[in-house]
Amino acid sequence: MDGIFLAREIRNRERELNSLYKRLDQQVTDGNLQNLVNQLRQHQSQQLSQLDELIKGLEGPRPFPPTVRLARHVVQQGETLSQIASQYNTTVANLLRVNPDIDDPDMIQAGKTIRLPIILPPSPECYFEYEVKRGDTLFKLTQQFNTTVNELVYYNSIKDPDLIYPGQILIIPCPEDETSDDDKEISEELTFNTLDRSNANNYSGSIEEKLFAASTRAQLRRALNNFNIRVPTRVNFNTDIVIGAIEYDIENLYLEDRRIRVVVDRKARGYHLVTVPRDQFREQGSYRVYFVTRDNRTLDRDRVNI
């Protein structure tokens, strides 16, 4: 159990020994030996302090408040808490912390839905939940439910799009009615500045990986790591967001209510990264990002927080 129960047991026994050390101190009257007893008591006090620090580290952060939405997983036949913890890069102790109703961590029943210590962003206005089946991939689910890998990654706080697990419960946004997209009036053209551009290399990867938006340095790093592209250091995410296109050039950006339309042009090599000032957006929150061709054909969708 990650050592936490054993550490607590050792601390309990040391606390019991503490009373014996006090009695020993009272019964030893020889001056020279008294110094030795004092040293023993100091060592024991230090050991208790170290055990307290160890237990605090093993316990980790306090439970999430009830208002925070956490990811969930349906236990599969034969699964253990240790296996589930390994899949989601966490610990059994953290799983127990967010699932206080689990009485015996060694007896977890198949079919039980447990919470994961993974915080989810606010859900879309319309969505449904889906339990991952064996053989599912994010790409297959995008084809099945008319969504994108980027949206599934965002709404489910997925760190690695190539790793989803049977039993994982995913938030799936409802498909939008796109029949009216051609009739949408462009409300405002956005200004942007080129952060980095190259026409040097070919890049392999899916269209979902090649078109993206980032509102933090970590998001930009994850997107560029797929192509071994260095993250520019001069971008300030306090004032800007970044929109990127691999093997595309970004030509125009338009703001349509809470949608950002990015017009791109295909090129054989290289990439194009641009910064967009946040002060052009009147409202804070989540914006949909649509990457479209010059003839208004949608290539991919993403989402970015302003």
UniProtKB/TrEMBL annotation:
Under Gene Ontology molecular function, one entry of this record is:
lytic endotransglycosylase activity
One Pfam family named in its UniProt record: LysM
Question: What PROSITE patterns would the database entry show?
Answer: LYSM (PS51782)
Signal peptide per UniProt? none
LysM domain: which residues? 71-116, 128-172
Protein name, entry field: Peptidoglycan-binding lysin domain protein
**Record lineage:** Bacteria, Bacillati, Bacillota, Clostridia, Halanaerobiales
